[in-house]
Amino acid sequence: MSGLIGKKIGMTSIFDENGKNVPCTVIEAGPCVVTQVRTKEVDGYEALQVGFDDKKTANKASEGHAKKAGSVAKRKVVEFKGFEADYKLGDAITVEHFNEGEFVDIAGTSKGKGFQGVVKRHNFGGVGQATHGQHNRLRAPGSIGAASYPARVFKGMKMAGRMGGERVKVENLRVLKVVADKNLLVVKGCVPGHKNSYVIISK
């Protein structure tokens, strides 16, 4: 799995070759710096550690780690296993790592929604207003279990609670455009996270 770290810029839409209006997400992808090369002899596995987005202030440990790669400390650092090409410490990986028309997986942290009920959180249908004389329980979850046996609520019961703020991965998004001079990647569809949030793009 080879890829890049990016930052979600926002959504827009473009017209494809058939004149169809396609919704898409614009991502600032890279340039990422190789901050460490993991090897089997030293680390027990092979991987590339890449960093993205310079830190304004960093502790000495982060600065020293980045200095080995001839770079400054990075705000986001991610490891990728099984990189296609051979990269050395300090090499820069740009958005040209991707090609138009290929498919990518994008992972990020979803928007936090706070405490939500079962209708929004788990897509419960709610109840119609005309049944069984009920009048004020439109979005209630209903029964959550039996009575004296088993006398408890089973684990995993879908109930109200905090929603969002979780790692979400969207698979098979088509790359519509690669703008190399501005480090921009345009992918079809939506991507998890708010504007300016970090995303991990992998082939």
TrEMBL record:
Keyword Ribosomal protein recorded: yes
GO molecular-function term, one example from the UniProt record: rRNA binding
Tell me the Gene3D superfamilies matching this sequence: 3.30.160.810, Translation factors (2.40.30.10)
Keywords attached to this entry: Ribonucleoprotein, Ribosomal protein, RNA-binding, rRNA-binding
Asked if the keyword Translocase belongs to this entry, the reply reads no
Q: InterPro entries this protein is in?
A: Ribosomal_uL3, Ribosomal_uL3_bac/org-type, Ribosomal_uL3_CS, Transl_B-barrel_sf
List, alphabetically, the Pfam families matched.
Ribosomal_L3
What family classification does the UniProt entry report for this protein? Belongs to the universal ribosomal protein uL3 family.
Quaternary structure, from the entry: Part of the 50S ribosomal subunit. Forms a cluster with proteins L14 and L19.
Q: What does this protein do?
A: One of the primary rRNA binding proteins, it binds directly near the 3'-end of the 23S rRNA, where it nucleates assembly of the 50S subunit.
Give the HAMAP family listed for this entry. Answer: Ribosomal_uL3_B
Kindly provide the name given to this protein in its UniProt entry: Large ribosomal subunit protein uL3
Name the encoding gene, please: rplC
